[in-house]
Amino acid sequence: MNIKSGPVAAALAVLAVLFASPVWADFEVNMPRGVTTISREVYGLHMLILWVCVVIGIAVYTAMIVAMIRYRKSRNPTPAKFSHNTTAEVLWTAIPAVILVLMAIPAAESLVRIEDTRDSELTIKITGYQWRWHYDYIDEDVSFFSALARESNAARRRGSGIDPYGVDHYLLDVDNPLVVPVDTKVRLLITAADVVHAWWVPDFAVKKDAIPGFVNESWFQATEEGTFRGQCAELCGMDHGYMPIVVQVVSKEKFDEWLSEQARPALSQAD
Amino acid sequence: MSTTAIDVHAGHRPKGVLPWILRWITTTNHKDIGTLYLVFSLLMFFVGGSMALVVRAELFQPGLQFVDPYFFNQMTTVHALIMIFGMIMPAFAGFANWMVPLMIGAPDMALPRLNNWSFWLLPFATAMLLLTFFLPGGAPAAGWTMYPPLSTQAGASFPFMIFAVHLLGISSIMASINIIVTIMNLRAPGMTLMKMPMFVWTWLITAYLMLLAMPVLAGAVTMLLTDHFFGTSFFRAAGGGDPVMYQHIFWFFGHPEVYIIIMPAFGIISQVIPTFSRKPLFGYAAMVYATASIAFLSAIVWSHHMFTVGMPLAGQLFFMLTTMIIAIPTGVKIFNWTATMWKGSLTFETPMLFAIGFLFLFTLGGFSGLMVAIVPADFQYHDTYFVVAHFHYVLVPGALFGAFAGAYYWLPKWTGHMYDERLGKLHFWLTAIFVNVTFFPQHFLGLAGMPRRIPDYAVQFADFNAISSIGAFGLGLAQLIFVWVIIKCIRGGEKATDRVWEGAEGLEWTVPSPAPHHTFQTPPVVK
Ligand code: HEM
Ligand SMILES: [Cu+2]
Ligand SMILES: [Cu+2]
Fold it and tell me: Which end of chain A is more exposed for a tag (fewer CB within 10 A), N or C?
């Protein structure tokens, strides 16, 4: 037994060291908590299921490993003959069922909140194109296209000779970011002009398909200022990998300033 | 008496090249056709695998090094189509052809001529698919899911791909009809349904699932075809059609399809674990019912592949709950396999190693499956590398390990020789290690925000991608050992006994190894 458990213990120790080591600081290994109440709720849900899975996993894997060590032929030459055990079978059907119900309840509650798009203070229409986004501030007379930033676009070409590591936010930067005010419920109307795309910003926990002929709804309310990045998340042709999304969350005052700046050129064109 | 019958027919090996080719083309013998399926599937494993390696080579580093984005998309698309329709389904069809008649004591499949056609459609369909690489516009590049309107933007490959899918579908439908008829009518006297080996059960259920699913796929792609060429508007929004309807129809096929892929593997594992535990399968009846309920549930959960399309709340809740419920029968299967090993007398020959690898890693894929079933969290996981990791854990250590376990388990029965156990074990260990090196880091990539189906990525995803690519090449190389093992085993090696494995139970172990060309001309009686 000791000889057998040696390697197992060693492996566990190696794993523990690996996970604790500072090397992991450079590796992003988990979902972001994000900057909306919904995204934090989703993160909590994610961690909850993850831990439930880890606990069940430890139980199941332990049973398997013990069976393999204890009942190998050299230790247990005569196998038992049983092939049923009603109690065990009822238990391992019923217990998972209970666990599932317990997980489904908070998930359903979150879902109800996620789908509630009422009482928004700002509405933005998002249209996916091959391969850029169009943003339209519905009541504000502001609209523009948002495409991959020039530096990334140059570096991404095959044989460009530009090192991606030298480009700021390689593939995750755009020419015109979406700008929204902080602490404001922003409603999104999402559609597409050619093929299916999907608008995804992990920090807001928003991912919604942009489908031609449909207008999908979603919303977010960022509680922190900052720049948040995402990407198109539905295969939309050869430049699917080059459709980033950048959202700047700014203070309400800054946002109003930005809005008036944006509206001016549009007005002068109309003159 | 049956021995003489076998002797008379033993000399089916024609002399000369042309007769030899003709024999393989015209054969109606279930064992020959099983062999054809298996050889074809092995070939396609390397074709589809090379495409995955092109993808992984490109993703090794940020920046584009080897291929253009459009070709990259062709690679992912055709990789998936070939792996599913050209590799894993034919592999299990090969096992069914070889083993179902042997396991139920039948002399052959019920419809041998149909059987020949089911197989021979496959190489033609696959060739048609692969030849699209040489057409203007290249091979299909819209993903194996072929969502419109993107898929209808394709070039000349479009009708070819659809026709290939039709042929593949016809082939599968014919094969499943044959399997159902065989199992229903040709069982040996005394073999009631509830005495059938698990592998036969899983294939019976799989065959029904194929009858349900394949025509739906055929319908969906036919509608794509008419939208493209004949001016219909099933899925064209501009003409009043509905692109989401395609996704519903596709996944009504697609979700049962993933169970079509995995269930025969369940069957194989249910044969292998009892054999090497020297103990009967725990909870046989529960296994049958669990398999049947998984099949039923698989037909009503399709929309969990499309939680982000904008479904009504009630729809999302329904599909979340039904999807979560699948975890129960799946859990029952895992627990039953573990209980089969409990108090057994275990040895770890290669088939058992692959079965245990299956047990561990398929469970892991099941956990991430449970995670993606939770809708709010799935909004974050969907279409990222987390999902790529999830389904590869189910497909590679799931379906593929099942196939490897079956191959090593029955190889002595097919060839009459024992395979090289040392090489087999080496194959297992390298495969098991590299599978995890390849796919485990992809969970992290997905959580950190890397979408799937992209040819290039932001630099913060670089390290895990590099690890994953190294793993993929290791995995690919390790498979060459498998080919070597098979060739060695066909050419010679220690003679296999009839029973081959000490703990093996079932009719297939009562015939000689190699299984003669004709078996069970007098039906065996099962008490
Ligand atoms: C054996 C080693 C394998 C490797 C290294 C591998 C690798 C890959 C890679 C890199 C992708 C592209 C992911 C993306 O960009 O989204 C992919 C996609 C896929 N693979 Fe595999 N794969 C393997 C085996 C399999 C098997 C056995 C199957 C099925 C039986 C399979 C089915 C798929 C499917 C369905 C996709 C999705 C394609 C799409 O997004 O349209 N793979 N694989
Ligand atoms: Cu897009
Ligand atoms: Cu896209």
Answer: C
CA gap B89, B259 in Å, rounded: 11
- Cβ atoms B501, B352 nearer than 8 A: no
Q: What secondary structure, in 3-state letters, does chain A show?
A: CHHHHHHHHHHHHHHHHHHHCHHHHHCCCCCCCCCEHHHHHHHHHHHHHHHHHHHHHHHHHHHHHHHHHHCECCCCCCCCCCCCCHHHHHHHHHHHHHHHHHHHHHHHHHHHHHCCCCCCCEEEEEEEECCEEEEEECCCCEEEEECECHHHHHHCCCCCCCCHHHCCCCCCCECCCEEEECCCCEEEEEEECCCCEEEEEHHHCEEEEECECCCEEEEECECCCEEEEEEECCCCCCCHHHCEEEEEEECHHHHHHHHHHHHHHHHHHHC
CA distance B103 to B410: 12
Could you give the percent of chain B with pLDDT greater than 70? 97
Give the model confidence (pLDDT) of A146-204 as tens digits: 999 999 999 999 888 889 999 999 999 999 999 999 999 999 999 999 999 999 999 99
Q: Is B389 exposed, middle or buried (0-12, 13-18, 19+ CB in 10 A)?
A: buried
> With an 8 Å Cβ cutoff, is B341 touching chain A?
yes
DSSP summary character for residue B495 = B
**Chain B interface, best mutation among A92, A189, A218, A245, by max B CB count within 10 A:** A92
For ligand 1, whether the C-beta of B474 sits within 6 Å is: no
Report the pLDDT value the prediction gives residue B522, as an integer from 0 to 100: 87
Distance A207 CA to ligand 3 centre (A): 12
Nearest one of A246, A216, A221, A218 to A231, comparing CA atoms: A246
Phi, psi angles (nearest 5°) of residue A122: -150, 135
Cα–Cα distance, B241 to A253 (Å, whole number): 44
Residue among A131, A239, A232 nearest B70 (CA)? A239
- Report the alpha-carbon distance of residue B190 to residue B525 in Å, rounded: 6
How far, in Å, CA of B139 to CA of B146, rounded?
A: 12
Q: What is the pLDDT of residues A225-260, one digit of tens each?
A: 999 999 999 999 999 999 999 999 999 999 999 998
In A61-79, which positions are buried (b, 16+ CB within 10 angstroms) versus exposed (e)? eebbeebbeebbbeeeeeb
> A145 — phi, psi (to 5°)?
-90, 155
Comparing A11-20, B10-19, B220-229, B505-514, the range with the smallest average pLDDT is: A11-20
HSE-up of residue B417 (Cα within 13 Å, Cβ side): 14
pTM for the predicted model, two decimal places: 0.92
Q: What is the DSSP letter of B156?
A: T
B259 belongs to the catalytic site: yes
Give CA B489 to chain center in angstroms.
24
Contacts of B409 (CB under 8 A, 6+ apart): B268, B271, B272, B275, B351, B501
SS3 B232: coil
- N-term to C-term CA, chain A: 88
Return the residue whose CA atom lies nearest to atom 34 of ligand 1.
B80
For residue A23, which of B351, B229, B463 has the smallest C-alpha distance?
A: B463
Question: Rounded to whole angstroms, how far apart are CA atoms B276 and B285?
Answer: 20
The pLDDT of residue A11 is 53
pLDDT at A16: 52
For ligand 1, whether the C-beta of B265 sits within 6 Å is no
What does the block give as tokens for A154? 């140059």
Amino acid at A94: A
CA dist B11 and B375 (Å) reads 60
- Mutate which of B41, B76, B255 to test ligand 1's pocket (most atoms within 8 Å of Cβ)? B76
Question: What are φ and ψ of residue B230, in 5° steps?
Answer: -120, 15
Is the pLDDT at B389 greater than 90, yes or no?
yes
Cβ contact, residue pair B283, A172, below 8 Å? no
CB A64 within 8 A of CB B355: no
